[in-house]
Design brief:
This protein has 14 helices and eleven strands. The chain has 383 residues and is an alpha+beta fold. It has four domains: 3-81, Arc Repressor Mutant, subunit A (Orthogonal Bundle); 92-168, Winged helix-like DNA-binding domain superfamily/Winged helix DNA-binding domain (Arc Repressor Mutant, subunit A, Orthogonal Bundle); 176-203 and 250-339, Arc Repressor Mutant, subunit A, CATH 1.10.10; 345-378, no CATH class. The strands form five sheets. A three-stranded antiparallel β-sheet has the order 3-5-4. Helix 1 crosses helix 3 (51-63) and helix 9 (180-197) crosses helix 12. The longest helix is centred in the first third of the chain and has 26 residues, at 3-28. The termini are far apart. The relative contact order is 0.06. It is found in: Nucleus. Residues 202-211 have a biased composition (Low complexity). InterPro entries: RNA_pol_Rpc34, RNA_pol_Rpc34-like, WH-like_DNA-bd_sf, WH_DNA-bd_sf. Residues 226-237 have a biased composition (Basic and acidic residues).
Length: 383
Amino acid sequence: MSRAAGGDAEAAKLAVWKEALYEKCRDAAPENDMFSQDDLLRLDVIPNKDLMLLARVVQSLSDDKLFITMREASGQVLWKWRDAQEAHKYKQCTTDEQVLVYSLVDDAGGDGIWSQTLQKRLNMHDSVLKNALKQLQTKGLIAPFKNVEHPNKKMYIKASIRPSDRATGGPWYTDQNFDDAFIEELQRVVFDFIKRQSSYHSTHAGSSSSARAQAPKKGVVQGGLERGKKRDAREMSKPPSKVSKTAAGTTPRKEALLPLPAGYTGYPSVRDIARLLSSSGITNNTILSEEDVRKLIDVLVWDNLIEPVRVAGKVGYRVARVARQSTEPWAGREDPAGPEPYTSPYTEAPCGRCPVFDICEDGGPVGPSNCEYFKTWLGLSDP
C-alpha cells in the first residue's frame, strides 16, 4: 500500500472517530456541559483508550470549531461541544481578530456587548477592532442594536438571535422607545375587564318611595263619597294593570355596576386576563407573558383602582374603593382622566369633590362668589 493510500485511510478513520465522538458528546450532555479527558474516554469511542488518538480527534474537532477548549483555574483542560451551524459561522471568521471579537459577542448572548468593552477585554487597537467589526457585519454574523439601558452606547449582538427583553425593554418598548400610549390603553382594557367580571349590571329604580306612591292603597275604593272607607271585596275597584311611566314622583332607572356578594369565586386571575389580551388582538401581535400582564395589574393595584382577593385558593382581582361603578368603559376614551365612577349630583357638582369644602363660606378666601369651578359648572364664566 502506498503512503498516499495509507494517509487517505487514516484520514477516513479519523473522520469516523470525529463524527462518533461528536455525536456521543451531543447525546451525553447539553451544549454547555464540560468534558474532561477521562469523560471523553468513557464514551467508548476511542479504541483501546488511546490517548494519542484522542488528542488527534479532539484537535481536529477543535480545528473545525465543533469543540471549544476551556481551562480551569487549576490548569485542567476541558472541552464542550458547539452546534454545527454555529461552528460554520466561526469558520467564516478568516482572521484571529474576527474569531476573538465574534466569540465575545457570542458569549454576550441576547444582552449584547458594548464596543468599548470589546476593546478593553481584547486589548485591541481601535482601527483593528473597527475593521473586525465591519467584516463581521458584512458577513452577516453580528449586527449593531440599541440597548434601552444604554441608549448612547454602540452595542453589538449576534445577527442570528433576538435581543433580550432586558436589552429591548420587552413588549413595553417600540423601536427602543417607551410606548406609554400602548401601556395606558392595555391598562384601561384590563381595568374594564376586571370591572365587568367583579360586578353585576343593575337597572334598579332610583327611588323606592316613588314606587310606593304609584301603587294604590290595598282595598280602597277609588272615588265616591265614601272614599277611603273599607268596603266589601266585591265593591273594590281593580288596581290599574300598568303603572304609567309619566306618573308623578317617578325617577328614571339608573344603570350601575354593583359589587358581587361575599364568597364569590369567579374573580379574574392573571391567567384569565392574559388570555383575554391574547384573544382580543389589542396587543398588535406583541406576545405578552403572564409576568408582563402581572406588571400591568400591579400598576392598577398601586393606583388603588383594583385590589387582589384570595378566594378558593387562588388570587383574583376586583375593583377597589367605589361600591357603585359606572357602566361606561375606560378604554377608548381620549381624556387622560381615570375610570369614570358612578355619578350622582354630589359627584357632578364641584362642591361634592372640592378639597377645601370645609372652609368655603361667604366672605372667606373661598366661597360661592369667587369659586371659578362653581361658575364654570353653572355656565357663568366667559368662554
